[in-house]
Amino acid sequence: MSNEATLHSQQEVMHGAHDHHDHEHHHEDSFISKYVFSMDHKMIAKQFLITGIIWAVIGAFFSVLFRLQLGFPDATFPWLESILGHWAKGGRISAEAYYALVTMHGTILVFFVLTAGLSGTFSNLLIPLQVGARDMASPFMNCLSYWFFFLASLVMMASLFVQTGPASGGWTMYPPLSALGDASIGSKIGVDLWLTSMALFVVSQLLGGLNYISTILNMRTKGMAMTKMPLTIWAFFFTAVLGVLSFPVLLSGFILLLMDRHAGTSFYLSDIFIAGKALANEGGSAILYQHLFWFLGHPEVYIIVLPAMGMVSEVLAVNSRKPIFGYLAMIGSLFAICILAFLVWAHHMFVTGLNPFLGAFFVLLTLLIAVPSAIKVFNWITTIWRGKIHFTPASLFSIGFVSTFISGGLTGIWLGNSSIDIHLHDTYFVIAHFHIVMGVSAFFGMFAGIYHWFPKMYGRFMNNTLGYIHFWITLIGAYLIFWPMHYEGMAGMPRRYYDYSNWASFNQFEPLNHFISVVVIVVFATQLLFIFNFFYSIFKGRKMTTQNPWKATSLEWTTPINPGHGNWPGEIPEVHRWAYDYSKDGRDFIPQTEPIGPNESAH
Amino acid sequence: MNTMTLEQRKKIHPHKYSLWIAMGSITMMFIGFTSAYIVKRAQANWLAFELPHIFWLSTAVILLSSLTIHLALKQFKERNMRRYKQLITVTAILGVAFAVCQWIGFTQLKNVGLPLDGPVSASFIYVIVGVHMLHVLGGVVALLVMFARAYRTRIRTYSPVPIEVAATYWHFVDVLWIYLLIFLSIAR
Questions:
Q1: Burial group, residue A410, by CB count within 10 angstroms (0-12, 13-18, 19+)
Q2: Residue B187: its pLDDT value, please?
Q3: Chains A–B, number of C-beta pairs less than 8 Å apart
Q4: Residue A183 — pLDDT band, cuts 50, 70, 90?
Q5: Which of B31, B123, B165 sits opposite A259 (nearest CB)?
Q6: In DSSP terms, which residues pair with A274 in a beta bridge?
Q7: In this complex, do A210 and B116 lie within 8 Å of one another by their Cβ atoms?
Q8: In what residue span(s) does the Heme-copper oxidase subunit III family profile domain sit (chain B) (predicted)?
């Protein structure tokens, strides 16, 4: 770790700030240090966001491809052969390609988009701006964090183009399938590249997480007590804690898997026959990997959804012109979710032969998560209740988040019960559940964040009309895609299958699958509209003319319209009150920087 | 500039803080390994064996290196740069010696018929001890950087933070090794 580089850059930040203070004197930034190896947290946030958007398009496009197979198993699409080559001979996606697409869709969306793209973007952008710091605790490590992510992206991207294709054993990469190169075409070099990429990714997340935590705990401006921070910061804090504690365990699981693949060890392998030939491996346990994987894997879903929760809390309070309802309860429930996240991993493993007695504890702990989740939902609804709601695209997406979080969360109670899970495990019900509660919800939180803080990032607004179209089609589309899957799952339709046509009992779902696939294509096209809006608005959007367009109280809106490196031209403002003084004492809002008046009580 | 520095610097230096979180993170990784070990041990076909004796020597070496880096920090604070440079050199050498000892331990294991691709209980030793060794070597690299810095004439650093961070990390890998040794000796 180069401490010196960090300190130097911090000094630079401070010099920079000083220069702006004295006006006119610009401090020189080359193209490379400004746009490429930038140490400015705002630029790093944009780098994470745009890389995440590129991955999101790829990952979502993969889902369109495999939905074509699921919706139209008999049809042929000649154009598929021209883009996928021998993976889609005759215009029909091959079974190998199907599994590769499904695996990569999961990996890309879970890790590269909703982990790096979501918390990477907004933790970087908002933590220094909202706690009142010039930059992160270590801007150099922050820069490294992005570039490790970039490397991970390159390796993962490369794995799409190797001859035997990318990893295709499912995004969870369970052994023995993933541990044996001979087991399938998708277990060859694709898995090595996958593991390498993920190891780099873990390093990136750890570097980022360390920074987020130490920035939040150490670099708050004067007066910014922990209980005066906006809920976004609390959410990013717990997200980082979850990441820092769970990603290393995943890494240890991956190291053992790599050893099994290449050093001949038998951590996960025992008594295996491939093509009638017995392997020498003995004494391993494939379940061990599942324990290590889900010890990260479960906190990972909260790593994805907590930042969205934080941003939604903030956006809802700002846009309903009311203080957030139950601020301390919100923090308490984030904390409770954070603790419970580590105690429920075995609910992914009810059908692995887990001791039913042990299973009962995991059921109990899993169902307990409903309590903090319900507290949060209640508080969001009471926040907008009788509020003066401004229906911006950001606030619509936040309300959409609450909707999908409820409907996806309720099915979690079904799946959390081990006895019901035996029937529903590995069916489309599970797909419906986690896509709504974690996929769609997290995306809605992310969209809310992008629409809301776009002016802070680029000094311009995104187009509202396109935003409304984007919101309504995405919300309706998401429900049309995933709601029917509940019925398929309850009927027992298993997930991960390539073709159901030989299965008479599921023939009834054929028209439903057509329908879902068509909606997927429409929703995908709408996301392209959003991306057009995003990039068009960076250059041509309506310009921001006031510092505080949403009339919000938090610190990021006290910076100039296009803040330089160092964020505030002069002194960092001092904070006197919490971030949610809306509609107080007959005033629409009171910024955090305003001292408490003599006749006024703090919240 | 000074006021700004003060304004952002609370009780504990951000780098030290980050280090503590990083140490928590590394600990979690080893908790992952050791709990996998416990889970695996409870299952059938677990082969118990004695740890290579040289691990006791490597323990002595790393304990000694903790002492030398502690003294190095003390000398640095007293601006006794000659002694400081000697002491971090000794520490780095002891770090490498530790890694060599572990490596000899691996060959001893192999010689008694417990190779890496042998029984799972042996594979675990290689992986756990090996990953720990990499963390010690990472510390050695950090010390080499400190060393180069101490010989630099153009810029002089008076801040004890980097060496304090390195020393804390060094003690951490030391304690981590003691934990692993006790764990591996008891849970055989």
A1: middle
A2: 82
A3: 136
A4: confident
A5: B123
A6: A277
A7: no
A8: 16-188
Q: Quick check: A316 and A327 in contact, CB under 8 A?
A: no
Strand partners, A277: A274
Chain A hits for B126, CB-CB cut-off 8 Å, are 265
Q: What is the mean pLDDT of residues A251-274?
A: 91
Query: What's the gap in Å between the CA of B55 and the closest CA on chain A?
Result: 22
Q: What is the pLDDT of residues B77-92, one digit of tens each?
A: 888 888 998 999 999 9
| Interface with chain B: mutation pick from A4, A205, A265, A575, highest number of B CBs within 10 Å | A265
Quick: pLDDT tens for B145-162.
888 887 776 766 678 888
CA–CA min distance B25, chain A (Å): 5
Candidates B9, B12, B25, partner chain A, best to mutate (most A CBs within 10 A): B25
Q: Percent of chain A having pLDDT more than 90?
A: 81
* Phi, psi angle pair for A171, to nearest 5°: -65, -20
In CATH, what class is A38-271+279-589? mainly alpha
Domain boundaries of chain B, sorted by first residue? 50-186
Angle (CA) B67 B177 B174, round 5°: 25
Q: Which one of A206, A282, A292 has the shortest CB-CB distance to B36?
A: A292
Q: How far is CA B42 from CA A100, A267, A411, A468, in A?
A: 35, 14, 35, 57
Residues of A in contact with B116 (CB under 8 A): 259, 263-265
The chain-wide mean pLDDT, for chain A, equals 91
Of B33, B35, B123, the CB nearest to A266: B123
The pLDDT of A340-360, averaged and rounded, is: 91
DSSP sequence for A492-550: T-BSS-S--TT-GGGGGGHHHHHHHHHHHHHHHHHHHHHHHHHHHHHHHSPBP-SS-TT
Pairing between strand A587-589 and A582-584? antiparallel
Contacts of B39 in chain A (CB under 8 A): 285, 288, 291
Q: How many CB atoms lie within 10 A of CB A357?
A: 7
For the cut 90, the answer to whether the pLDDT of residue A52 exceeds it is yes
Q: What is the mean pLDDT of residues A249-253?
A: 94
Question: Closest chain B residue to A16 measured between Cα atoms?
Answer: B1
Helix (H) or strand (E) holding A583: strand A582-584
Please report the pLDDT score of residue B11 as a whole number: 65
Does the pLDDT at position A429 exceed 60? yes
Q: Calculate how close chain A gets to B51, using CA atoms only, in Å.
A: 19
Return the domain boundaries, chain A.
Answer: 38-271+279-589
Residue range A210-240, pLDDT digits in tens: 999 999 998 999 999 999 999 999 999 999 9
DSSP conformation class of B153: S
Decide if pLDDT at B97 tops 90: yes
Chain A residues touching B32 at Cβ < 8 A:
248-253, 292, 295
